[in-house]
Design goal:
The structure holds two protein chains of two kinds. By secondary structure, chain A is α/β, with parallel strands linked by helices. Chain A has 20 helices and ten strands. In chain A, strands 2-1-3-9 form a four-stranded mixed sheet. A four-stranded mixed sheet of chain A has the order 5-6-4-7. In chain A, helix 3 links the parallel strand 1 and strand 2. Chain B is mainly alpha-helical. Helices cover 76% and strands 1% of the residues of chain B. In chain B, strands 1-2 form a two-stranded antiparallel ribbon. The radius of gyration of chain B is 24 Å and the shape is globular. The chains are: A alpha/beta, B mainly alpha. Chains A and B meet through helix 1, helix 4, helix 5, helix 19 and helix 20 of A and helix 1 and helix 12 of B.
């Protein structure tokens, strides 16, 4: 009898634990309707307080200032809505994936292309087509950023705020001048610069090699000098890593590494260390996104500039002036369709996105946003941003940042392998071989 | 009934939080799953891929290096230090006992950051000391594809040596002083007494220490995650890191769980081998004890 009782208890415990993770998962794709928006209008006016959870970046000035501004504006426009912020973790989307797997997604969440694609499969992300129309968000998106609004199936799954972004090759004009060097146009000239900088005790390029996205951006910037598609074509399966252009790019990067372009400890250097080295004039060059313009200008004033990426020869250098590494992605504020206030959350997501853009223009001197908010910066554009703004209309092709890549296997592979390529002990052949197996795996 | 009542809560917790998840790991290792949508059964595909993946072999090689360094460093130093502080003639024994244990109570992150600064190529203490001594042996300790795993293993061994030290100290304390007195009367030196009495009687303690050190080495993850992020490139990956990378970065949960399954099997295998190795010495100790008791009775 005792044994039987014990067995029953154990069996019940096992069954309960097995069922624990199988919570009911609503699998309806919610397409918001006009009725839904009308409902939120009444919520807007009624005295009921609505609490919405939001998972968003809130780490530095570039994310804190726009978020705080958006919340401030929301309090004026939607006095009854209160946002409960869950600060986004820098964990490769692990937290968001776990929340999705346990059906606990926040009402509004910032998400990249890759996670949105996964959530589409399980109907855990709301289709926002109607809200985008009714709130006027769709019309406000710049033509150049329209592609960031629509997913490959033509639907809108997130309200983007970041516009097209670019990988910029920053350089310290004063250091170049002091060493009697011109801005390098070809790799041959770049190698000469590296030699001079090293002999003068200056790090040629400061890089935070601990982060895979920037090492990928470096490889991508080089690859775009050989083929305009860069890593974007690899991600989309339009090219193979064994194609001559990508092999040449790997060889070039390896050659630069072996020539001493980076510090010996580059693979363990974090952003703060690398940035400090450049801003304190210890390094001649630095690779980062265009969002770094503000910080670089603040620290280095007129001594800092950005250059076009060097190329194998002058002809390809000139031709490559319209091709940039980086680009935008279908990412932004997405909405949980299972939220109790899904319609209101969608409307708030659109509002937050728009205000986010507004703050970036007003307070971050960053006109590269997805939405035309009609505001102008409080201060004049920095010379570097002005130069970039002048160049943008001539840009014919961009690639992708790692967060815009669609395949997580490729994303992990390219980040690991480009980090490895920063080692003098790793060859371009090994890189190509490993990436080839990654790409084969991703196509399986 | 009473036994059942006392063991049931612990049993339920163990089954719920350890046993069932391990079973689930094995089940999901046979699927293709991105962690969000439904898992699709793929049979042995993940295992087939695992055995042809270069990274799997790199991870296993690193795991062996890590386990060997941790085991050798910790067992040897912990034994020497424990024997030293158990000697009543040594001054400041209490201080050393505490000092050797301090790294254990520190956070792993703190310890890793400390050694990151020490091993920094440009400004690290280690290279600076070598430089000041005029020794031309400046190394990229953590950026070197071949050396970094040894450095990381050393950091782990350094931090957790105090734990093994505490276990061995406790083991030494439990040995009756009668044996040492008898050995002294027979003219045995301290070294001989430790070799013939202390070390054989610590067999059970060494078994626990060995299990902790080797399984700790097999499932190594934290140090490489903090210090090198598995790098340079993938050169400091271990099976645990491979599991993390596959599941949480590549969103290949099935593949990640296949490497986790191998990790569990390797840990179990290590425990079985250690048990088999110590079975003989345990039998010898029991035989010696029985012989001594018989001798005492006849005397």
């Amino acid at each position: 009898m005792k044994k039987r009782l014990l067995s029953v208890l154990l069996a019940a415990t096992m069954a309960a634990s097995l069922m624990a993770g199988c919570g009911s998962q609503t699998t309806t794709t919610t397409d918001t309707s006009a009725a839904g928006v009308a409902e939120t209008e009444s919520t807007k006016e009624s005295g009921d307080k609505v609490k919405l959870s939001i998972y968003a970046q809130y780490a530095d000035d570039d994310t804190r200032i726009p978020y705080d501004y958006a919340v401030e504006q929301l309090a004026k426009e939607y006095p009854n809505v209160e946002l409960e912020l869950i600060v986004q973790s820098q964990d490769d989307g692990m937290t968001l994936s776990t929340l999705a797997a346990s059906n606990n997604l926040p009402d509004i969440f910032q998400a990249g292309t890759e996670i949105i694609n996964s959530l589409r499969e399980t109907n855990q992300v709301m289709i926002l087509n109607d809200v985008a129309k009714e709130t006027g968000f769709e019309d406000k998106v710049y033509d150049s950023c329209k592609e960031l609004l629509y997913a490959d199936d033509g639907n809108i799954y997130a309200f983007p705020y970041a516009g097209q972004e670019y990988v910029l090759w920053y350089y310290n004009k004063a250091i170049f001048k002091a060493c009697g060097l011109e801005v390098p146009k070809t790799y041959e000239e770049l190698l000469k610069c590296i030699e001079v900088f090293n002999s003068s005790g200056i790090t040629p390029m400061s890089m935070f090699g601990q982060e895979g996205w920037v090492t990928t951006a470096m490889y991508d910037a080089i690859a775009t000098r050989y083929t305009a598609g860069g890593i974007k074509d690899l991600d989309e399966g339009k090219a193979q890593i064994t194609d001559q252009a990508y092999v040449d790019a790997a060889n070039t990067m390896s050659q630069l590494v072996n020539a001493g372009m980076f510090s010996a400890d580059v693979s363990n250097t974090n952003y703060d260390q690398a940035s400090a080295l450049f801003l304190e004039r210890g390094a001649a060059m630095f690779l980062n996104g265009q969002w770094y313009i503000e910080d670089a200008t603040k620290a280095l004033g007129e001594d800092v500039g950005w250059m076009y990426y060097p190329a194998p020869d002058e002809a390809s250098y000139e031709a490559g002036k319209t091709v940039f590494a980086g680009g935008g992605s279908t990412s932004g504020y997405a909405v949980n369709p299972d939220s109790e206030n899904a319609e209101l959350a969608a409307e708030v997501a659109a509002f937050i996105s728009e205000k986010y853009c507004e703050a970036k223009v007003l307070y971050r001197s960053n006109p590269l946003v997805a939405v035309d908010t009609g505001v102008t910066a409080e201060t004049e554009l920095t010379p570097m941003m002005q130069e970039l703004s002048d160049v943008i209309p001539t840009i014919t092709s961009t690639t992708k940042f790692t967060w815009g890549l669609t395949n997580s296997i490729f994303n992990t592979g390219i980040m690991d392998q480009t980090k490895f390529l920063l080692s003098t002990q790793y060859t371009a052949d090994e890189f190509v071989e490993e990436m080839d197996s990654v790409i084969k795996r991703m196509n399986d | 009934m009473a036994i059942a009542c006392f063991t049931l809560p612990a049993l339920i917790i163990f089954v719920t939080f350890v046993f069932i998840p391990i079973i689930q790991v094995f089940i999901y290792s046979f699927t293709k799953w991105n962690g969000i949508s439904g898992a699709v059964f793929t049979g042995l595909a993940n295992y087939m891929r695992l055995f042809t993946d270069n990274l799997f072999y790199t991870s296993n090689k690193n795991m062996i290096i890590f386990a060997v360094i941790v085991t050798v460093y910790q067992m040897i130093l912990a034994t020497i230090f424990a024997l030293a502080v158990s000697n009543t003639k040594i001054k400041a024994r209490k201080f050393f006992r505490v000092a050797y244990f301090i790294p254990v109570v520190l956070s792993v992150t703190v310890v890793c950051q400390l050694w990151l600064s020490i091993f920094n190529t440009e400004s690290g203490l280690f290279n600076q000391i070598l430089k000041s001594m005029g020794i031309d042996f400046r190394q990229n300790w953590l950026s070197d594809r071949y050396k970094s795993i040894y450095v990381i293993a050393f950091v782990n061994a350094w931090q957790w040596m105090g734990y093994q030290f505490a276990l061995i100290c406790a083991g030494i304390k439990s040995i009756s002083t009668d044996y040492y007195e008898a050995a002294q009367i027979d003219g045995a030196t301290t070294v001989v007494a430790h070799r013939k009495i202390t070390i054989p009687l610590l067999a059970e303690t060494y078994k626990s220490c060995l299990v902790i050190a080797i399984t700790g080495g097999i499932k190594a993850f934290t140090e490489m995650f903090i210090m090198t992020k598995g790098g340079p490139g993938t050169s400091t990956y271990t099976l645990a890191y491979m599991m993390y990378s596959a599941a949480f970065r590549s969103k290949e949960y099935g593949y990640g769980l296949a490497s986790a399954s191998i990790l569990v099997l390797e840990c179990l295998m290590a425990i079985v081998v250690i048990n088999a190795l110590f079975k003989k010495s345990e039998a010898d100790v029991v035989k010696t004890r029985k012989f001594r008791i018989r001798k005492e009775k006849t005397a």
